[in-house]
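Hi both,

Apologies for the delay on this - the queue was longer than expected. I finally got the flavin mononucleotide-bound model through. Below you'll find the protein sequence and the ligand SMILES exactly as submitted, and right after that the structure tokens for the full complex including the ligand.
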Amino acid sequence: MAVEAFLNSSKLLQHWPSCLLGLLLVLAIKYVLNQRKKSSKNYSTDRDGDIETEFEEEARGDLQPALEEKPHVQFVPGQTLNPNGARRFLELVRGRRSIRSFSPLTKPSLGVIEDCIRAAGTAPSGAHTEPWTFCVVEEASVKQSVRAIVEHEEQINYNKRMHPQWVTDLRPLQTNHVKPYLTDAPYLILIFKQTYGTAKDGRRKTHYYNEISTSISAGILLCSLQAAGLSSLVTTPLNCGPALRELLGRPVNEKLLILLAVGYPTDDCKVPDLKRKRLDEILVKY
Ligand SMILES: Cc1cc2nc3c(=O)[nH]c(=O)nc-3n(C[C@H](O)[C@H](O)[C@H](O)COP(=O)(O)O)c2cc1C
């Protein structure tokens, strides 16, 4: 037995150059595969990790774009607000303020809200994935449920979850966990980012840069509401997303980005005395 083992090991010793070569080859292949995996992960765009898991799957040979491949069409410039479009738009958006006292007595038509959401839907999006859902709530009982969820979580947020510095920074805005505007405002718009979609073949469709795309869309919505003479309040209630998603029966790929209150201000509505940064503080010319 011992002799046989000795003979085997000496044979191995004889062949050590080819063994070493084989080992080096295996290591080199492993290195190349690792590098390829790393470089595909570099394209990850979502901080929630959804895209990373998407790309961990090995690329198949039959990959198809999510959009139909067809010839491009002639670009036709859209309508402009000229003359002085930029100045007129500036005057419009300068008048926007976040309000926290909404009149429960006056209500814009749903058609106006729909037009504003149509405008929001014109936003650019990563690879034209349009990764947004706008849920419009006007039913009093649903608004009441939204308020109950938000006030419950916000009480914990203010008392425990938020850093004392955060609570201190909010003091000038005079906000707290009580949110009457959630039931007073005639409309609540819950803006969800779709973290992924479903392709025609049933596979997961990656929604690149879904948070940035949905935020741009929300910005257009704010401007449209302003153009319609409506006021709004952007809120981002901490820890409320899953409960609000369930309340509205939205699917798990949708994550709440913004809870927007929309309507008209009360006559005695007050806002914090805020100043905007000057142009030379936000513009750098090269
Ligand atoms: C991303 C984001 C999150 C916000 N979250 C809240 C919020 O949770 N509650 C709130 O009362 N206001 C919230 N606001 C409103 C800001 O406090 C408000 O925009 C800011 O004070 C400037 O005031 P203005 O909108 O009147 O210019 C939020 C605004 C943004 C853009």
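Main takeaway for now: The pocket of flavin mononucleotide is lined by residues 97-98, 100, 173, 175, 233-237, 271, 274 (CB under 6 Å).

I'll put the files on the shared drive as well.

H.
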